Amino acid sequence: MLPAGLGALIGAARARLSAAGVHDASLDARLLVEHFSGTSRVDAIARPDKEIDIAVRAAIDAALERRASGEPVHRILGYREFHGLRLSLSPDTLEPRPDTETLVEIVLPFVKDMAARGRKCRILDLGTGTGAIALALLAAEPAAEATGAEISEGALATAACNARELGLAARFRTEKSDWFSNISGRYDVIVSNPPYIPCKDIATLQREVRGHDPVRALDGGDDGLDAYRAIANGAAAHLEPGGALAVEIGSTQKADVIRLFEKAGFRFSGSRCDLAGYERALIFRNEE
């Protein structure tokens, strides 16, 4: 049984995850202990002898076992922070990661510029998952509305739940659609973090990813570009003249993705790097 004192409990949790080879064992141990015990870092410093109830310690023990076996810490917690928002996760959704915040940042100036000119920006988020991208844009710009399109009904339910929890449901709707199959009308902005891992590479991903993110959200086909082809081929019919289209890409895909969208008539307008320095988000424009 884990020790009762908060400080010793955190230490034991850290040692257990470290022995299991968990990256960032200290951070994950702290997150799990704080989540299940309702404590904070301040408590650990100011009250290291605080006694944690045996039932709570049992829950922490079970959570540590799950983490040691490879389940990501945020899957265990049930949520992840993204662009300042707390988003609930489900087995049907990709876990939103900091790299994807670059996609929000590359398109947000366009959204805000439309608002400054007195126009309501209509956003289409293809493969919305948790709703992360669309909801981050809505939270940052009140004069915007968004549709989250997704083929997974479970993911759509999660996105709708997140919109309600964040108070954004009035400006966010969901649509079950295989890319553009059920989409009607035109939008000022189209965004997507599509599956872009070549199928042969999925088995080489970290166990936290390959074992817990839905394969449908990872598998980009033989060359990783299937989703970009679908988006490039269908976007012109749904993007307003002068609109913006932005996609997340893999670290080696820039040239191939630009070529696909330019062939479809879009003009490459810029890129944004992630925290590791890789070009992670591309933005395109169509003609006025």
Explain this structure:
- The protein is α/β, with parallel strands linked by helices.
- The protein folds into 2 domains: 6-77, Helicase, Ruva Protein, domain 3 (Orthogonal Bundle); 80-285, Vaccinia Virus protein VP39 (Rossmann fold, 3-Layer(aba) Sandwich).
- The protein has helices at residues 6-19, 25-37, 41-46, 54-68, 73-77, 101-116, 132-140, 153-165, 207-210, 226-235, 254-263; strands at residues 79-82, 85-88, 121-126, 144-150, 172-176, 187-192, 239-248, 267-273, 279-285.
- Strands 5-4-3-6-7-9-8 form a 7-stranded mixed sheet. Strands 1-2 form a two-stranded antiparallel ribbon.
- The longest helix is centred in the middle third of the chain and has 16 residues, at 101-116.
- The mean pLDDT is 95.
- Structural domains: how many: 2
Backbone structural class: alpha/beta
CA gyration radius, whole angstroms = 21 Å
CATH topology of the largest domain: Rossmann fold
CATH class of the largest domain: Alpha Beta
The largest sheet is: 7 strands, mixed
Number of E-type strands: 9
The oligomeric status of these chains comes to single chain
Our count of helices gives 11
Distance between the termini: 66 Å
Average pLDDT, all residues: 95
Low-confidence stretches: none
Q: Strand order, main sheet: write it out.
A: 5-4-3-6-7-9-8
The shape, in one word, is elongated
**CATH architecture level-2 label of the largest domain:** 3-Layer(aba) Sandwich
Approximate helicity band: 25-40%
CATH-assigned homologous superfamily of the largest domain: Vaccinia Virus protein VP39
**How much of the residues is beta strand, in percent?**
15-25%
Task: Give me the strand/helix succession.
Answer: HHHHHEEHEHEHEEHHEHEE
